[in-house]
Amino acid sequence: MMIDFNDDRPIFIQIAEGIEDAILSGAFPEESQIPSITEFSVNYRINPATALKGITMLVDSGIVYKKRGLGMFVSKGAVEKLKNSRKEQFYDHYIKNMLEEAKRLQLTREDIILMIERGFIK
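That's the GntR family transcriptional regulator sequence above. Prediction below.
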């Protein structure tokens, strides 16, 4: 996971998304422990409160949970929950905009399908 201090997104959001990416890639399987707040703050040279804020977002959304005295763990079902959430974000951020532009260009459904298929061939 990389933290980009020049990114417009807040660091705590980058922490949360980085953990999500690691969960989706299998680096942090369900029921496995994630790094501690201290590990994040030391490794990325950030304020512990910033790391805590990112992880708290994941706790609030049910992606990770705290085991008292042991640390933070990936919730059972987190992968499916993340996939569903990311699919909705993908639709909202990419597909909606693409379809709006397609309408402005008067593209047909078939035109769009051909373009998408062309992208998979490369």
